[in-house]
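Q: I have two molecules that I believe assemble together. Could you output C-alpha cells for the complex as a whole instead of separate predictions?
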Amino acid sequence: MIEVVSAARCIACDICVKACPANVFDGGPGKVPVIARQQDCQTCFLCEIYCPADALFVHPNAEAPTGIAEAEITARGLFGSYARALGWKRGKAAGAENDPTFELRAFL
Amino acid sequence: MPQTSLRRKSADRTAPLNLEADVLVLGGGPAGAWAAVTAAENGRRVVLADKGYFGTSGATAPSNTGTWCVPPGEARAAQVERRAARAFGLADPHVMLRMLDTAHEALRTLGNDGYPFPRQSDGELYIANLRGPDYMRHMRRLALKRGVTVLDHHPALELLGADDAIVGAAGWDRQQHRPWQVTAGAVVLATGGCAFGERMLGATGLTGDGYLMAAEAGASLSGMEFCGQYGVAPAGTSLNKGLPYRWASFFDVDGEPLDMSAGDRHVAVAKGLLRGPVFASLDKAGPEIQDWLRRGQPNCFLPFDRIGLNPFTQRFEITLRGEGTVRGVGGIRLVDEGGWTGIPGLYAAGDAASREDIAGAVSGGGGPNASWAIASGRWAGAAAARTALSSRRDVAGKLRRLGGIGLVAHSARPEAEASIDVVAAVREEMLSIDRNFFRTGPKLRCSLSRLDGLWRDARAYLAGEGAAAIRTREAGALLASSRWALAGAVFRNESRGLHRRSDAPESDPNFAHRVRTFGLDEIGVALDRAIHAAPLQVARS
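A: Yes, here they are, computed for all two components at once.
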C-alpha cells in the first residue's frame, strides 16, 4: 500500500489527492499531502504514475504497511520506477504505442 | 458537440450540490465512460458521478486488458460458436455477435480519436489490447470533450424515484464534504461488479453498490452464483493478473510440482492451497517472452523488483484472490437490448449487469468483459438518451429517496462502526477457498444463514450520515450481494462452470437455465426460463 509521500520531492500540486480512486490522501494549498486513510489503499500504483514529481511510493504488500524508509527507496532508485516502465513522464500518459502485450496474446 | 457545463460556478463549495441532467451515469470505469460519451453524442446533457476518480477508478484502470475484437466476417460467427459452446448453455450467441459488432466499431473509433494503439510488424494498428491507465485517461478526456459534466469523488448513496420511475440519485461529495443530488430523465448504473472486500487491483470501489440500488428500485439480479472465479497473485499483493502465469510452474511446500493434469490452473492451485503454501516460478518464459512480459505488464513485476527477487529463476509464494462478480458473471438482470433493468428510467452496463449473455457460466474475464463494457455502455447510453428525451417530467415535490440499509435504521440508536464487522464477515464467507471455491450445500447454507442474521441486525442498527454513510452503504451492498450469490448457489444444486459443488459434481439438465435472485429482507430465487439461451446456431451473416 501507499507508504511514502516524499516531502523532498513533492511539489504540493494535490494531483494525488484528486487521482487516488480510494481517496487515501488529504491535501491542502501549499501542503505536502498526508496519507490519511492508508487502509483504504488498493495498491493499484496509479498515484505513482499521476505524480508529476515521482514523489510517491507504493509498496507491493497490499495487506499492511511495511514501514519502508524513504532513504531505502531513494537508494534503490524505486521512486518513479513504475512510471518509467510504462513510459509515463511527469504525470503525463505516454508509451502505450510501445506496449508489446499483443505479442504475448498470440500464445494464449 | 460542445455543451455548456452543468457545474455552477459557485463560491460556496459547502452548499449542497443540486444538478439537473438528461442522463446521469453512476460509475467511471469503461462502461460508464462509454455510456456517458454515447449519451452526449446523442445530444443529451450528461452527468457522470464516480465514487473515486474517473480515470483511475475500477478494475480496468490499473490493468492491461485484451478485448474480444473480431472484424466482421466468417471468423466472427465461428468464434462466437466456439465461445458459446463453452458457456454451459447459458450464453446468447446473438448478443455476442451484436457485442462484437459494437465493440469493434468503438475500438476503431478510439484509434481515430487518438488512443495510441501499438503497431504490429505489418504496420497495422493492433486494436485488441488496451493499456488500462492510458485507456481510462483517454476516456476521461473524450467524455470532457463531448461535454460530459464529471463529478469525481461523488459516491452515489441512493436512487431517487418519482411516480413509477427512477429520476436521479443522491450521494455525498467526499472531498468537499457536502451532499449532492442529480435529477435526470434516465440513470445508467455502471458501478462495476462486487469483489466482496478482496484486496486486489481496482477492487476498492467494487462493493456492489449498483446491485443494491437496483434491487431497492425493484430490479432483479441474475447469475450471482457464478462468483467462484479466482486469480493467481504473488502472496500478499494486489496483482491478480493471470497473463504471466501462462509461463509458470507451480510447486507445493516440499518443492514438488503441482498436479496440473486437470487442465485448470486455478483448480490445481486452489487444491494446493488447501494443503499448504503454494509457490510459482515463471521459468517457462524464454528471453523474448521475459522482455515482452516486463515491458507489457510492468505492474506485475513491481512486487518482484521492489522485494528483490527474480521471478524467472526463483520461486515465490502465491495466493488466490477472489474475483467475485468482477471476473465472475453475475449482476443486474437486463430485460432488453438497451440495458434496461425493467424499471422505468433505470439502465445498467458493464460489470454492474449480468454477463451471462456473453460468458454463460464461465468467466468473461479479460477480453469478453472488456468488449462487453464498451458495447453495453454504448447500448445503455443510447437507450437512456432516448428515454430522457421522451420522459421529461416535473419531479418537484415528488422525489422519493429509495435507499434502505445503511441509511435508514429501525433502531432508535443507529451506529456506523458496525460496517467493519459486516465487511469482515463478508470476506470470511465469500473469499474463502474452502467455502466459495469448493462449494457444498451445507457450507453454502451455513454462510447464508450467518449473513442473513447480520442483515437483520444491520437493518436494525447500521446507519450513518455524510461520509460515514459511504461505509455503511458499502457494507450493506456487500452484504446484499453476498446473500444473492449464496441464495443462488444454494438453489443451483449442481455444478456448472464457475459454480463448483463438491456434493453435486455433475451438471443437471434441469438447471440449464439462468437463476434470478431478487428482494432484500427476504430473498427470492427463481429459474429464469424466459431468457433461456437461444439454440447454439449463429446465422452466418
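A: One point stands out. The first strand of chain A starts at residue 2 and ends at 5.
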